Amino acid sequence: MRWRLGNGKRGTDVSNQVQSKRRMLLWVDAVGGFLVCLSPETTLGQALPASDVDIPLSADVSRRHAAIRRQSDEYVIDPWHPVFLRGHQVKQPTPLRDGDRLSLGESMEIEFRKPHALSATARLIFGSRHSTQPASDGVVLMGESLVMGPQAHNHVICREWANDLILFRRGNQLWCRTPGTIHVDGQTFEEEACLGPNSHVEGDDFSVSLEML
Amino acid sequence: MKFAYASGTHPLEGFTIKRGVGSGGFGEVYFATSDAGKEVALKRVQRNADIEMRGATQCLNFKHLNLVALFDIKYDDDGAGWIVMEFVSGESLRDVIDRYPEGMPRAEMERWFAGIAAAVAYLHRHGIVHRDLKPGNVFDDDGVVKVGDYGLSKFISGSRRHDQTESVGTFHYMAPEIGKGVYGKEIDVYALGIMLYEMLSGRVPFEGESSQEIIMKHLTDEPDVSGLPVAYRSVVSRALRKDPRERFATVAEMQAAVGIVPEQAQVATPRSVDVKPPIEHLGTVVISDDRSHPSSAADATVAGHRLQKNNESVTAEPVAQAVRDGGSRVLEWWRNAPQVLQIGSLICGVLLLWRLQGRWLFYIGMSFGVVYAIYFVIRVAAQAMSRASQPRGTPASGNTATPKPPRVARKPRVPWQQLARADLRAKTMVERFTELSGGLLISALVVGILSLVMLIVAGQPIDGSIDMFARFAWLAIVSMVGSWGVLVSCKFWEGESGEPLLRRFLLLGLGLLWGFGGYFGGDFLSVHFSPSGDQHGLTSASMMQHVYPESLFLVGGGPTLAAYLVYFGGLLAILRWWKQADPLRPNRFSLFATALTAIGASFLPLPLPWGPMVALTTSAAVQLSASWVPAQRRLELRRRSLQG
Questions:
Q1: Interface predicted TM-score (ipTM) of this complex, two decimals
Q2: What is the distance in angstroms between the Cα of B143 and the nearest Cα belonging to chain A?
Q3: What is the pTM of this model?
Q4: Does A202 touch chain B (CB under 8 A)?
């Protein structure tokens, strides 16, 4: 059985769905764990047992602190509680630029990166010593594709890898692509494969696991 | 990199594997969570399992801030051993070194070295040799240096030399005697030396294409330390001696040689002593619970810079105490008072002293001193007698307070002044020139005002006569030239704490020039000082004439050119003027320094009141116009110095 994003109807554009909680953990062996948010809108707030935000932060922030929205190729931060950007408090929805440093509340700092010019996917890096709950090494706001590989403009940087591994949406399913042979959950594919909610992907020099939340 | 267990599997009951982290010499390491959500690292021990486990068991209860904590040892259904460890999320020293191919910043290097050395010292004190120290085994966990992979195989060399999967890098840190199979703590000192070399230069001292080549270099080659900063060359050479007996005998010795106070990464103290983290310190103070060697050198922590006074004042004398308290209150007020008030009270004080004719104060002070001396002698004698009459073993009255333990505080690793000096050195010529020109302008203004005040205070007739104006002009111009000379020369010295002798010599030269100027200026303005003409104050002329050679004085007692040269040359050369112009001086304006300058000047051969007047005006002008690092900046620098 294949895992479906969205509501199950084939051909639905996932990026237009304003549905929260569409997230997964991306475990990259020997590299790190990343929280990948698939919806165009993600909410940030304090990690509490009953928390329903997309990015639960182990930080002194409000229960629902802010939202980051993807609008076409641009990201906009919508603050509900004090958010500071470029030295000023943000009071209304404000576009984010690559390299922006956001402060949430008094102590939480997040760097916003949109490293690849051709991809709408962005990365959030915790500047202050904070993390998400469950812990991750970073957050990826995934647009159409997520590129893992050795170069600096990749969304997830994997220094030791020879090639890129690209996760991408096709219809409302998640696929992966890389030059050469890939093994997904014990089956062998050439170059492309469709992924399930908890797939394990292996290549010549890498292994990656998905964990749907 | 491939791992035996994929994300989501449960090879060990109670834990879920999330991802592979890396592969060490003894097996794979995974990031996993317990069923309750605790994040841990799991190490699956594949090779030499028995020996591994024995080593890990020995270290299971070690506690040190800089060691990766071991939580437990478990066995899975297949009988394979797993070590449950603290998960360290940050990058390894390997990553950091790779980021700085020319060597990492000094402060960063010291932080890493201090942490690693503290951990290794702890292991050594507990009888464990790490055996596998290398940058890949050292991590940064939220700013805390953590050493991992300790307490493992005793047969590291045997198992590794034949291990084909092991990268060549492992051999870079191996001491030459490991091949012989007989080794001890010295191999860790050797590895520390290699790591220090690598942190400083970005590369290891012995490189090679193959493991054989590297091993051969460890055995025969001398490390080339010429590329390292001079301060570290001898430390590295000594740590890398081929003969283990010639290396540092302990890690503490090596830490001292590197210039790091042992256990600087954290304060470690015996648990029995009640230690409170001093609130005024900004760095994290962590108390380790190592009780086993409270007095060992590596533990001997950090002498506090705010050591609590021992009860030395058991017999505090009430009068002296009151005077001291009053004095400190006045000082406190003085420090916080606005500058206008400070200058105002200074002028009032001088005026009062002068009007009271000094000597009366002297007589009053003397009589008070005599009375106090008699009282003090009687008090001491009475106390001695009362103590003698008490039975032995019981403390004397007033001595009942139990001695409090010294408060141990973290010592700043770099004094903030040093950081500030670096800032000052970094100034551009333009910045320096701008500051200087501003300072010179202010000093001219200050001199103008003070000169007039001085004339009034000195009781000079303020009658609008040409003579009055001439005297004013002389005092103002001479003081201004003096303060300018000091300001200009000190501006060039502000970046260094300096060589006093050289500075004095240069100032002496300036002073002599100043003396010429003063003499001929006075001549030009027809200002002449004859002590007989002044009826104020204690005339120094007769005393001066006894002390100094006659050639300095005219028949009437007035000063000759030689006296001017002695006065001005002496004034600049004897006092440490650069302290008064130093941007790092404790207060912008110090009454004490000004008073000292004036008092010092009154012993030089220029008749009263002119000598002290010139000195006082110059000193005040220098201090009020020289640049001063503001309090806010000082606080920042202190914070930086504490945080290292």
A1: 0.75
A2: 9
A3: 0.51
A4: yes
